[in-house]
Amino acid sequence: MPETRNVRGPRSVALVGPYSSGKSCLFEAMLEAAGAPVKRPADPRNRPATTEIRVGHCSYLGDEWSVLDCPGSIEFAFEATAALTMADIAVVVCEPNPAKAAAVAPLMKYLGDEGIPYLVFINKIDTLDGGLAETISALQAHAGAPLVLRQMPIVENNAVAGYVDLMSERAYQYRKGQPSELIQIPASMLEEEQAARGRLLETLADHDDALLEKLLEDIKPTPEEIYTDMHKDLVSGAVIEVLLGCAESAGGVRRLWKTLRHDAPEAAETAQVRKSVDADGPALAQVFKTAYVGHTGKLSYARIWSGTITDGMTLNGTRLGGINRFVNGELTKVPEAKAGDIVALGRLETVPTGATLSANGNAEALPFPEASPPVYSLAIATTDRKDDVKLSAALHKLAEEDPSLFITQDVETILHGQGEMHLQATVAHLAKAYALKVSTHKPSVAYKETIKKAVHEHGRLKRQTGGHGQFADVKIDVAPRQRGEGFQFIDKIVGGAVPRNFIPAVGEAAEEATQKGAFGYPVVDVSVTLVDGGFHSVDSSDMAFRTATQMAMKEALAKADPVLLEPIDHVTISVPNEYTARAQRLLTGRRGQILGFAEREGWSGWDDVEALVPEAEMHDLIIELRSQTMGLGTFRKRFDHLAETKLAP
Ligand SMILES: Nc1nc2c(ncn2[C@@H]2O[C@H](COP(=O)(O)OP(=O)(O)O)[C@@H](O)[C@H]2O)c(=O)[nH]1
Ligand SMILES: [Mg+2]
Known about the structure:
Elements: E1 11-16, H1 23-33, E2 54-60, E3 63-69, H2 77-86, E4 89-94, H3 105-114, E5 118-122, H4 133-140, E6 147-149, E7 151-156, E8 159-165, E9 170-175, E10 178-183, H5 190-205, H6 209-216, H7 223-236, E11 240-244, H8 253-263, H9 267-275, E12 284-293, E13 297-306, E14 308-310, E15 314-315, E16 318-319, E17 323-327, E18 330-334, E19 336-338, E20 342-346, E21 356-358, E22 376-382, H10 388-401, E23 406-409, E24 413-417, H11 420-434, E25 438-441, E26 448-451, E27 455-463, E28 470-480, E29 488-491, H12 503-513, E30 526-534, H13 542-559, E31 562-576, H14 580-588, E32 593-599, E33 606-614, H15 621-628, E34 634-645
Parallel strand pairs: 1-3, 1-4, 4-5, 5-11, 6-11, 29-30
Antiparallel strand pairs: 2-3, 7-8, 8-9, 9-10, 12-13, 12-21, 13-20, 14-19, 15-16, 17-18, 17-20, 22-24, 22-25, 23-24, 26-31, 27-28, 28-30, 31-33, 31-34, 32-33
Helix pairs in contact: 5-6, 12-13
Bound molecules: guanosine-5'-diphosphate and magnesium ion.
């Protein structure tokens, strides 16, 4: 049996993996197995998708843990990424179904790239149909290191009844909601068990010459040797340990706990290796989530990397108002928290998500993940205009809580996020937490217009109203410019046909007139040249020249062959290459002009497809892309140019 390591400080494990693989179920089973109180949903088979990190504190065999249940949906990936940044180890929860293996690819790549130790928990083992080999090899195709299957399922009457642990060579029978029972390895499995154990040892021997020598000389390694190798290789990312279980009936959950207990790095190790922080140093913490909770106010979820944080101390210039632990979904106040802990800190009003906290506020900022650029947008408006100020304040807080939400405020207020579900959850939260009635709609496209032909126009204002009249006369040439050149005003007056002091008013009025062209959209890329005009020594004024110019511009813009311009985006879709052709069809179906495709840099088996796509076709692109690529396709876009269009908006 492995010796108990002397663990310093509480550790943290993040449960991640594709949507519906059973993370939330496993979270509850783990807390329950650790004897912590757990709130289960009324109907566990119909639980709503997790959209926010859930934290649970517990202690297992004397070690303290924070378990982080992360959302699986790509639309809430930022929450999961933030949690992973804080965790000592990740458990990638997936299903024994090779067809679903690709869904784990981006996550495994992220974990590998970031050097976050992880193991794989193949959940729903009760649904195993046939062998595990296909699932393992499908997962292996996306993993950056060899997967080592540590357990073999024991199948009885076509159902998984338990497992053989290939490291201890012991067999266990699952007992619903109870610790598994030690049994004999079924005789029929012995041969297969030996072969599987051989594969496990060979993989470990790839990183341990002493073990390799023993294997070659047919000497049985000691259990301690194997456990030490597994721990070392898992922490360094050299191998990925694979466990099995059934979260629903708590099968394999204690085995998972014991593995975590043995193999997860200590908080101090994580601090040192991944954060370059000395765990014995002064108080240092990092905020990974911000939430505004009813009357409690602002809560900053933070992990403490070194030292001790006590209630009431000053962090980054703000006085701490409460340290809370997460017990059974409720907050419990504690006087202090020490290195390794994950707690919710109260009332750090000026502290944003991602901030590094220290007593003097001068600590070097620890890295924090950046949110993916938004892929879906919705315009939002209050149903009652007098709520506008309230909406704006609420949105500000929402954006602070959720760094993957972006807000722009121009003609419309637009929410930009990670998908339809993400923005729906945002709007639902807005309605609930801020009692705001809002409606959402598709954002309008920023059409522009321009002209195709140069025209000459004459504008003349002559008005006699009683004594003092108004007079101005302008002759302008209005001509198209190259796309992107913008507006230009040229003054060609010679001999004082229009006095100097009125000319700026003509220029300003000409530019103002481009705000609304023949189709009602802003006019871009035109030049206006003042060539001639006339004035009256008493009746002329800035005002009169403005009006005359406006009249001339209106006529000119209508006569100069106006055309509508639509914004075109440069779009790069990333997909596993089996979907490349589909992505291209999807783009051409949206009036996209394909520029080409190439291997996605750093992503084996993925392609980037580039195209120019009208913005008017972009609104629900992500929805269709995800539905056609098992949720894996993503894109990024940037404005490219304005193009003439005949489509009426
Ligand atoms: N058959 C089976 N179903 C499971 C198991 N674990 C979870 N589920 C079911 O899978 C669905 C999704 O579970 P959930 O924990 O919400 O998944 P999450 O999205 O990964 O958090 C629920 O209907 C669960 O009841 C398991 O071990 N076996
Ligand atoms: Mg969940």
